[in-house]
């Protein structure tokens, strides 16, 4: 006997696009607990951490170009700027070459720009994530549905889901993974509005 699958109607969903969610659940940078990100601010309820994500851009002072003369034959070779690290200079008279210098800062790892989402799990080598509880409810209703009525346009959340989420063969495993994400939510979750 087959089980009866639910029906998913996209027009009944409260949020039509990813930017429609007013907050996201993220890891707190200080205590690694659950924090709420709204617009450009991260706020943690357990350690009272608050941070502004948008910082003023630093002024980049560019050095004036330096005139380079050949040390061998004293001819004009060209101009050289220190911020252009990959500039190679060559004297046409004697063949003297100045190779590009490699800065130590290139080897340092780049800092992660976004805060890590609280509702994130690995699913068969792919990242399955939800922004908040409302987004998790949307994903659960979409995956559990046997019949999915979506708009023909590529402007909604459902139309932009990856194929491995849309595939019916992953339904049971995806529902288990989404249930695992649901367990990450606290039982007495405070209102987020």
What separation lies between the terminal Cα atoms?
43 Å
Radius of gyration computed on alpha carbons:
27 Å
**How many E-type strands?**
12
Fraction of residues in β-strands = 15-25%
Structural class: alpha+beta
Q: Main sheet, how many strands, which sense, barrel?
A: 4 strands, antiparallel
Q: What value does the average pLDDT take?
A: 77
Order of helices and strands: EEEEEEEEEEEHEHH
Number of helices: 3
Shape: elongated
Strand order of the largest sheet: 2-3-4-5
The portion of residues assigned to helices is 10-25%
Q: Poorly predicted ranges (pLDDT <50, ≥5 residues)?
A: 104-111
Tags for this entry?
TFIIB-type zinc ribbon-containing protein, four-stranded antiparallel sheet, two-stranded parallel ribbon, alpha+beta, 3 helices, elongated, 15% helix, 193 residues, single chain
Question: What's a quick, concise take on this entry?
Answer:
By secondary structure, the chain is an alpha+beta fold. The chain has 3 helices and 12 strands. This is TFIIB-type zinc ribbon-containing protein.
Descriptive account of the structure:
With 193 residues, the protein is an alpha+beta fold. The protein has a domain at 66-101. 15% of the residues lie in helices and 25% in strands. It contains three helices and twelve strands. It has helices at 133-144, 163-166, 171-183, and strands at 6-9, 24-27, 34-38, 41-44, 50-52, 66-69, 76-80, 89-90, 97-98, 119-123, 126-130, 145-149. Helix 1 (133-144) runs antiparallel to helix 3. It is elongated. This is TFIIB-type zinc ribbon-containing protein.
